[in-house]
Each structure stands twice: as structure tokens, then as C-alpha cells.
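Write out the 3D structure for:
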Amino acid sequence: MFRAQIVLAEGEAPAFRTGDQVSVAARSPIGHYRVPNYVRGKRGTVVAVIRPPAVNNEEEGFGRNNGSKRHYYRVALPMTELWSFYPKSSNDSLFIEIFETWLERIQQ
């Protein structure tokens, strides 16, 4: 019996998985971008892959998207990573959804 192999197009398979350690890119592009400044350059953990893949709304907003899709990820950022004055004993986190192009893998 022949079984066809399914080949996913670029962006269809998530680049990150739940539990991956990531950092948010520290870019400062000009224009309106949907990643708050206070999370750029910070480290966190992917807690969920948002499905299905979506169009890059930043590129779409500037009329530059060709219809390619990637994933959003829910990322937990420890409050101690965001705010230096936050109590170091805290286990509190900020949960935020970030588009794939803004995340970078932390090599362990």
C-alpha cells in the first residue's frame, strides 16, 4: 500500500514548541509594530502554539504581505525579567501572544 508523504509549506509547521525557551527580538523598526517595547529583548517560555497559522499582520498593515503564514505563540515572560524592582521570589508571569518572526530560540 502506497502512503503519500505530506510535505508542509514554509510556515505551516510551527518553528517553536511548548516548553521552548525563547527571547523576543530587540529590534526597533520604524512604524507601528505589535510587540510592546517593554518585552523586546526579554526571555520567556513558549506555553502554547496558536493555531491555525496566520498572516503576518505587521507586513499586511504595510501592504507587503504575499499571503505567507506563520504561527503566533503564547509566551510566559517572568515578571522579574520585565521589571527589575519586582520581588525576586515571585513566580508571576506575563502571558503575551507574539508572532513567530519576533521570537529567537535560546540555545541551552
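The CA atoms of residues 3 and 95 lie 41 Å apart.
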